[in-house]
């Protein structure tokens, strides 16, 4: 059976593994938002940044990409994803049904935020998100780079996210 991964943030533009097939996909019951404080990749303990996470919500759909993995690489990719995504246990690994743009429904490894984790910060106003993103830097670089790359790559795929667009404009304005 083919292993699928649902990408909605940096996995869209930087999966870190060989992708066999890449298809626009939708996940029901979750939305993409900057609802997790980043103390490793895009911020520090002293100056946390923000990263995108899937936050559960009724009657909503998140558009992203389904990424398939070659059978012989599945164990290796799953180990890599767990090391990357579960670094602080703020994400929960779930196997959720996604709908691919060609009509197929597949189960995908999906990383969703744990709303009870100390790094969870759902509900932050967009202005506060912009101010945090504008100045935070972590082990993988500036928080702005994460925002700009994710938004640009989603746009290239025809996936528009109004909140991300607003944040890009505001962060650029804050950083002059």
TrEMBL record:
InterPro entries: ChaC, GGCT-like, GGCT-like_sf. GO terms for molecular function: glutathione specific gamma-glutamylcyclotransferase activity. GO terms for biological process: glutathione catabolic process. It comes from the Bacteria. GO terms for cellular component: cytoplasm. Pfam families: ChaC. Its EC number is 4.3.2.7. Keywords: Lyase. This is glutathione-specific gamma-glutamylcyclotransferase. It comes from Roseovarius litorisediminis.
């Amino acid at each position: 059976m083919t292993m699928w991964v649902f990408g909605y943030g940096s996995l869209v533009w930087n999966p870190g593994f060989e992708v066999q097939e890449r298809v626009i996909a939708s996940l029901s019951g979750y939305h993409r938002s900057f609802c997790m404080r980043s103390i490793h990749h895009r911020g520090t303990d002293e100056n946390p940044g923000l990263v995108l996470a899937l936050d559960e919500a009724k009657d909503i759909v998140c558009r992203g990409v389904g990424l398939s993995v070659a059978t012989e690489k599945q164990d290796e990719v799953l180990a890599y994803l767990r090391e990357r995504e579960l670094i602080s246990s703020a994400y929960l690994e779930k196997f959720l049904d996604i709908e691919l743009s060609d009509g197929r429904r597949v189960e995908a490894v999906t990383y969703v935020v744990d709303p009870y984790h100390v790094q969870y910060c759902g509900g932050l106003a967009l202005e506060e998100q912009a101010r945090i993103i504008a100045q935070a830097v972590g082990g993988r670089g500036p928080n702005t780079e994460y925002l700009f790359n994710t938004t640009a790559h989603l746009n290239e795929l025809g996936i528009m996210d109004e909140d991300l667009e607003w944040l890009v404009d505001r962060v650029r304005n804050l950083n002059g």
